């Protein structure tokens, strides 16, 4: 997520970090590099222009060129403007004064709207302990109703569906039935189209006027970049929605849509979907996203995710081992199991405030399918080898490979990945004890 921009900003900040003072030329060069990076990331040109003008004015106003710590001040200014561009304040769910609270999801086909419906339902159920149900009002896309029904059944949500061919009546009837059933929250999955057309917008407006939703959320595909901004603009002209759910953000290495939408459309991004798993869905926090884009990690989100799956006592024990540089393969395999519950290793490391993350971990990708393989290799080690990985020599590697059905090359890769993990965690633990951000 935002890999392209993060690499650019890390490189820029590294260049100015050790400068005692910044000259006007240094500042202009930095602004030019930011401009090129943002434009290459498909950020709206007007947004880029205003963003850079604000940075320059703040830098001049704060006397950055005369400062003894220009690096820290530039990072602070860029971070503040990035947060402002993304929307300043984070979003929270509000509920209607009368039951049920109705959320209506709209958008084009292919944006992940049906999946977002279930993810939002799960998020509200788990975070706010509400009884949530869904209405299948997409009667046009083949198998849309079946898909929603299957997902609702899988994750334990009531679903209202009809053979009726009128989405307005389906929505109204569904609200009434689910209200009587005691549901706190109802989410309507409406039909999308391949493109915006008059019939589509009229249908959505009719549903809106009939059920009076508490909020209308537009589902957009982050990977479409500026096209997502154009779609949001067209929807807002005729429907007037309340906020945005940005999907497929984990696949968006550039970030153009996320950085442009709020500024151009003046509508907040309320939720982001960052993976295929149902739990990879969260409220949008502009400050956390800005921190990740600028290479400063997102520790708060990581802590929240980890807190759901990691035992507190074990976490404290592991913390002490990291501080003492005593992390071993027994700990390593336990943490890989926890990581599988949180998300991919790439996602975890992207949230850490570690210098040159992309360089450190580019050859250390570990997915779910590999964890069982890693466990097999570790289980083939002796207890001494698990506790003291540094003693694993050539002959030991051959024995471990034979016992786990792998190759010596696999063992070498595992040892390298473990060494990289140790390096990152040591760096992170030092940062946690108060040292400067390690750019």
Describe the structure.
It is a single chain. The protein is α/β, with parallel strands linked by helices. The chain has three domains: 3-86, Four Helix Bundle (Hemerythrin (Met), subunit A); 101-293, 3-Layer(aba) Sandwich (Rossmann fold); 299-432, 434 Repressor (Amino-terminal Domain). 58% of the residues lie in helices and 9% in strands. The chain is built from 20 helices and eight strands. It has helices spanning 3-17, 24-40, 45-61, 70-86, 113-128, 144-155, 167-180, 198-211, 226-238, 256-265, 286-293, 299-309, 312-323, 329-342, 345-350, 357-361, 368-379, 383-387, 394-404, 408-432, and strands at 101-106, 132-137, 158-160, 185-190, 215-221, 243-247, 269-273, 281-283. Strands 3-2-4-1-5-6-7-8 form an eight-stranded mixed sheet, with helices on both faces. Strand 7 and strand 8 form a beta hairpin. Helix 12 (299-309) packs across helix 14. It starts with a helix and ends in a 7-residue tail after the last helix. Residues 431-439 have low confidence and may be disordered.
Top-tier CATH class of the largest domain: Alpha Beta
Strand content: 5-15%
Q: What class do helices, strands and sheet pairing give?
A: alpha/beta
| End-to-end C-alpha gap | 19 Å
Can you count the beta strands? 8
Largest sheet: 8 strands, mixed
Topology as a string of helices (H) and strands (E):
HHHHEHEHEHEHEHEHEEHHHHHHHHHH
Secondary structure: helix percent: 55-70%
Shape: flat
Radius of gyration: 25 Å
Q: What do we call the CATH topology of the largest domain?
A: Rossmann fold
Q: How many DSSP helices?
A: 20
**Strand order of the main beta sheet, please?**
3-2-4-1-5-6-7-8
Overall mean pLDDT: 83
CATH architecture of the largest domain: 3-Layer(aba) Sandwich
Fourth CATH level, the homologous superfamily of the largest domain: P-loop containing nucleotide triphosphate hydrolases
């Amino acid at each position: 997520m935002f890999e392209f921009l993060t690499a650019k900003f890390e490189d820029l900040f590294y260049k100015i970090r050790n400068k005692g003072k910044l000259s006007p030329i240094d500042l202009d060069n930095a602004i030019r590099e930011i401009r090129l990076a943002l434009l290459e990331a498909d950020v709206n040109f007007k947004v880029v222009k205003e963003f850079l003008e604000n940075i320059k004015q703040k830098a001049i106003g704060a006397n950055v060129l005369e400062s003894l710590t220009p690096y820290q001040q530039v990072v602070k200014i860029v971070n503040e403007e990035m947060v402002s561009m993304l929307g300043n304040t984070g979003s929270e769910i509000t509920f209607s004064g009368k039951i049920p609270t109705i959320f209506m999801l709209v958008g084009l086909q292919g944006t992940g709207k049906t999946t977002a419906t279930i993810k939002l339902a799960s998020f509200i159920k788990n975070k706010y302990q509400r009884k949530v149900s869904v209405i299948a009002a997409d009667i046009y896309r083949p198998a849309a109703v079946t898909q929603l029904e299957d997902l609702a059944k899988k994750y334990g949500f009531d679903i209202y569906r009809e053979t009726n061919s009128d989405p307005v009546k389906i929505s109204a009837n569904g609200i009434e039935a689910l209200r009587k059933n005691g549901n706190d929250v109802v989410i309507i999955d409406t039909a999308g189209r391949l493109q915006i057309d008059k019939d589509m917008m009229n249908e959505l407006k009719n549903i809106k006027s009939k059920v009076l939703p508490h909020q209308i959320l537009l589902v957009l595909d982050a990977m479409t970049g500026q096209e997502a901004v154009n779609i949001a603009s067209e929807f807002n002209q005729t429907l007037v929605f309340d906020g945005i759910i940005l999907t497929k953000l984990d696949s968006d290495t550039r970030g153009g849509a996320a950085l442009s939408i709020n500024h151009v459309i003046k509508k907040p991004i309320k939720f982001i979907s960052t993976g295929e798993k149902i739990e990879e869905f969260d409220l949008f926090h502009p400050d956390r996203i800005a921190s990740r884009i600028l290479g400063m990690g997102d520790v708060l989100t990581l802590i929240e995710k980890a807190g759901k799956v990691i035992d507190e006592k074990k976490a404290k024990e592991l913390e002490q081992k990291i501080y003492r540089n005593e992390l071993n393969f027994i700990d390593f395999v336990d943490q890989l199991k926890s990581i599988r519950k949180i998300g991919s290793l790439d996602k975890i490391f992207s949230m850490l405030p570690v210098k040159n993350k992309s360089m450190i971990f580019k050859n250390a990708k570990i997915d779910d399918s590999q964890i069982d393989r890693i466990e097999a290799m570790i289980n083939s080690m002796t207890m001494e080898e698990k506790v003291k990985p540094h003693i694993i020599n050539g002959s030991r590697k051959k024995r471990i490979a034979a016992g786990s059905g792998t190759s010596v090359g696999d063992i070498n890769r595992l040892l390298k990945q473990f060494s990289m993990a140790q390096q990152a965690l040591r760096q992170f633990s030092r940062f946690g004890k108060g040292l400067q951000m390690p750019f």
